[in-house]
Design a protein that fits this description.
The chain is built from 4 helices and no strands. It is mainly alpha-helical and about 180 residues long. Among the domains are: about 80 residues, no CATH class; about 45 residues. The protein is elongated.
């Protein structure tokens, strides 16, 4: 059925977007595993089926036989503008000319790619460390509040016992008279 192996859209993207997409693949895969591991099996199955259908759709849309059958034309390569179809009726207004050339973006080297990942990891570590310290402080406050509550209950019990002892003493004195 498929005449070519499935292609990803990365070769057709600008270099900055390619860099972002690679980083997203590295970050989102583990995150999605972490966040969906506690979900029900039906939800996980839904995500699996949706991702599979999306992958299949992308693979089919890049096949030349499908593109020809649907009248989509050839897949544009990097640096080429999309080819206008002949049967289009609408035309852009011709009043002003706007320069729509893409600005050249320096390609990302492996060194800058890994430095970006290192920066992301270090900022994540800082965020996690601050969150843990905040939670530690809040747990200390909860412990202090629990100890204060326990002390108040103990004091209330002692005061109640003193009140009962005074009443018993008064009753005993009345009986003696």
């Amino acid at each position: 059925m498929l005449t070519q192996p499935p292609q990803v859209a990365i070769p057709y993207m600008p270099p900055a977007q390619q860099k972002t997409m690679k980083l997203m693949g590295l970050v989102l895969m583990p995150l999605s595993l972490i966040f969906t591991i506690k979900l029900s099996a039906a939800t996980q199955l839904y995500f699996l089926v949706t991702a599979s259908l999306h992958t299949l759709q992308s693979a089919i849309f890049y096949q030349p036989w499908f593109r020809n059958m649907m009248g989509l034309g050839a897949v544009p390569t990097a640096g080429t503008a999309p080819v206008a179809q002949v049967n289009n009726v609408w035309q852009a207004p011709r009043g002003t000319v706007i320069d729509t050339k893409a600005k050249t973006v320096p390609t990302a080297t492996d060194e800058s790619y890994f430095s970006t990942i290192k920066e992301s990891i270090s900022s994540a570590k800082t965020s996690v460390t601050s969150t843990i310290s905040e939670r530690g402080e809040s747990s200390e406050k909860k412990n202090a509040a629990a100890k204060a509550r326990e002390y108040e209950e103990k004091r209330a019990l002692e005061e109640k016992e003193k009140l009962i002892a005074r009443r018993e003493y008064k009753q005993m004195r009345r009986r003696q008279r």
